[in-house]
Amino acid sequence: MEFRLSFIGSNFRMERREPFDRPYMRALFDYGARKMTDGEAWATEPPAVATLGGTADRPAAR
Questions:
Q1: Which regions in the chain score pLDDT beneath 70?
Q2: Bridge partners of 5?
Q3: DSSP 3-state assignment of 35?
């Protein structure tokens, strides 16, 4: 069985202003589409315990 994880990275900084926020949804869609075309949509390993403060997009501060 292969492991696949997709997530919203910490480099997506737009904040939702209301429950149905079209600009936010569009930006989130574009973010996901960019990750897909860049070949970064899926992580193949779970994060190590020591790196839980970061993401694949931005490592934890040291």
A1: 47-62
A2: 43
A3: helix
Cα separation of 23 and 49, whole Å? 34
DSSP-derived letter for residue 34 is H
Q: What is the pLDDT of residue 1?
A: 83
Task: Tell me the C-alpha to C-alpha distance, in Å, between residue 37 and each of 9, 32, 49, 53.
Answer: 16, 9, 28, 26
Cα–Cα distance measured from residue 23 to residue 29, given in angstroms and rounded to the nearest whole number: 10
Rounded to whole angstroms, the Cα distance separating 5 from 60 reads: 18
The span from the CA of 31 to the CA of 33, in Å, is 6
Q: What tokens does 21 get?
A: 């926020």
Q: What is the pTM of this model?
A: 0.66
Token couple for 10: 């910490």
Q: In this predicted structure, what is the pLDDT of residue 53?
A: 56
- Identify residue 23 by its one-letter amino acid code: P
